[in-house]
Design a protein that fits this description.
By secondary structure, the protein is of the alpha/beta class. It is 33% helix and 23% strand.
């Protein structure tokens, strides 16, 4: 069996706060991603999804560092690379699409110029060839009238067009891994569906591996092969998408699914998870979800559950269930 493209083994991220305190927004995170696979990283805000991706791509804030564990991309342990070497990995192997495409693009350069610059940095080609490649990339991502739009600045484009330009920019380096961090959150549902379809088409055409970060599980079934559920900085359940939707084993996973509105559901039937994610500098002892969990017992409140293999999935829970999402 071939090795996964990306493998995280007990990855922990440390951030030194201005007060001097060190906090850990990601703790012992482990999962793997195969070539050509889409992995959805899900959970509420503050669960460590984006910080995990920033660690993988070497974009942690200045006060942040990988404190322990490994992040291995195509045989290379990213945690041990220098900043210069990590820049080469981003230039060659990893592309990042952020939530706010307008802020992700340079406001004083045309989108075509920015894509062409990215091509020149990665390949030994002339600016003329790079500009032609930029137009071709814009056409590939479904930008209307790509030759004209290549001359436009970000403020002249709609939100959906800016996101397409960001994806074209990301694809300029022919990456092995595309990380889409809440890439559709700010878009209306029609454009959102188009961007999801585009990302999936690019995955199929180029053999990309994709990490799709979202808090919206209603999107996951459309695009993902595998789902990794995070809570309070830890991976708590990993499963194939059909297995997780059919029978979530962790109470938090079940709660996320049961909180999704459906066409056949009355508003009064919509369930919520009471409480909120604990702050990273005030984690409870034991399982971080225990204060919100209807199934918690004494062992949950005093001992952190290990991530182990149970029924063809990874699960970190002292009291796992086999419940169906209602």
């Amino acid at each position: 069996m071939s090795s996964p493209l990306l493998f995280l083994d007990r990855l922990s991220v440390a951030i030194r706060a201005r007060s001097g305190e060190t906090v850990y927004p990601v703790r012992d995170a482990s999962f793997s991603l195969e070539k050509g696979e889409t992995l959805a990283l899900v959970g509420e805000s503050g669960c460590g999804k984006s910080m995990t991706c920033l660690a993988v791509s070497g974009l942690l804030p200045k006060r942040g560092r990988i404190d322990a564990g490994q992040a291995v991309l195509d045989g290379t342990d990213l945690a041990g690379l220098s900043p210069k070497a990590m820049r080469q990995v981003r230039r060659r192997d990893i592309a990042f699409v952020f939530q706010d495409a307008t802020n992700g693009l340079n406001p004083v350069k045309s989108v075509g110029w920015q894509i062409a610059e990215s091509v020149v940095l990665r390949e030994n080609v002339s600016w003329r060839a790079a500009r032609l490649r930029a137009v071709a990339l814009l056409e590939r991502v479904g930008m209307p009238d790509p030759s004209s739009r290549a001359r436009d600045f970000p403020h002249q484009l709609s939100g959906g067009m800016n996101q397409r330009a960001m994806i074209a920019l990301a694809m300029a380096g022919r990456p092995k891994l595309l990380i889409a961090d809440e890439a559709t959150t700010a878009l209306d549902v029609t454009i959102q569906a188009q961007i999801l379809a585009l990302i999936d088409d690019l995955r199929a055409d180029y053999g990309l591996a994709v990490i799709f970060v979202t808090h919206d599980l209603s999107l996951v079934a459309e695009i993902a092969d595998t789902v990794v559920v995070m809570y309070a900085g830890r991976v708590i359940e990993t499963a194939r998408v059909a297995d997780l939707y059919g029978a979530p084993r962790h109470p938090y996973s079940a709660g996320l699914l049961n909180s999704l509105p459906r066409m056949d559901m009355k508003r009064s039937d919509l369930q919520v998870i009471e409480g909120q994610v604990p702050p990273i500098n005030a984690m409870p002892s034991g399982c971080a979800f225990a204060p919100r969990c209807f199934r918690s017992t004494e062992i949950c409140r005093r001992q952190i559950p290990e991530l182990t293999s149970i029924s063809q999935r990874q699960l970190a829970c002292h009291q796992p269930g086999a419940e169906q999402a209602s």
